[in-house]
Amino acid sequence: MARLQNRCRHNLRSFMSSQKKGTQMRVANLDNPVQLAVIGAAHGIKGEVRVKTYTGDPLDLGSYGLLYDATGKSYEILSIRPSKTVVVVRFAGVEDRNAAEALNGTELYVDHAQLPQDLDEDEFYYTDLIGLALRDNEGVSYGKVSAVFNFGGGDVLEIKESGKKPVMIPFTQISVPKIVMAEGYILVDPLAAGLIDDGSSSADEEGDEAETDAPETDDDGWAR
Questions:
Q1: Among 24-33, 43-52, 67-76, 178-187, where is mean pLDDT lowest?
Q2: Minimal CB count within 10 Å: which of 44, 88, 124, 223?
Q3: DSSP states of 11-54 as a string?
Q4: Of 48-57, 75-84, 119-128, 168-177, which gets the smallest average pLDDT?
Q5: Which of 96, 95, 100, 60 is nearest to 80 (CA)?
Q6: Which of 207, 210, 218, 176 is nearest to 193 (CA)?
Q7: pLDDT at position 171
C-alpha cells in the first residue's frame, strides 16, 4: 500500500472519508464506510469504465476485494490498469457500453475494518482526522477538522468553527505537534498554524501610519 508522505513526521494515507462536513454517509451493509473511488465515464464499448481513486496508488483499488455503492450493491474488479490520472476498470457483470454508462457517478466504498491497520505511530488515514477537535495547550478550542486536502504543497486541514468561515492550516509538526486519537482531539499551535496574529503586522501598520502622519518641514525645520 503506497503511503502519502508529508513534509514532516506526520504522514497521511489518502482515503476520502465518507464523513463529509460533519455528515455521516450511510452505506448499506457497512458499519464505518470509507470512500475509495468514484466511477466516471465509460471507456470503449466492452463495458470498461474510468475510475477516480482516493488510494495512495490508484492500482491499489484492486486489492480490497468487493467494493460497495451506497445501496449496498457489491462490485467485483476483474481487471484494472492505469490511464493518465485515473484507472480503467472492468467490473463483473458489466459487459457493454450501455451498462458502463449507467454506472457514471457511482461512489464506491469499503468498511474501515478492511483498510490496512499497520500504521506507523505518526501515520493517519484522512478519514480518521475528520471530526477531531482542535485545541491549544491552554485548552482553547479552534473548531473541528471538516476536511483534508493536498493541493501539491503538502497536506492541509480544513477547520470549521461554529459561526465562522472554514480556514485551512498546514498539517505539519510545527502547526500540529500532537494528535490524540483516543481522546478525539488535535493539539494545535495557533500561532504557527496562522489561527492567531502575533501582533507584528499591527505594529508595522502603526509605524507606517505614524510615518505617514508626520508633518512636512522646510529646510529650516519649520512645518509647512
A1: 24-33
A2: 223
A3: EEE--EESEETTEEPP-TT-SSEEEEEEEEEEETTTTEEEEEE-
A4: 119-128
A5: 60
A6: 176
A7: 92
Domains of the chain listed by start with CATH number: 11-114 (2.40.30.60), 131-214 (2.30.30.240)
Single-letter code of the amino acid located at 185: Y
Calpha distance 51→43 (Å, rounded): 10
Q: What CA–CA distance (Å, rounded) separates 60 from 188? A: 33
**The whole model's pTM is what?**
0.67
The C-alpha cell at 37 is 473511488
For residue 121, give the 3-state DSSP assignment. coil
What tens digit of pLDDT does each residue of 192-215 get?
A: 999 998 766 555 555 555 555 555
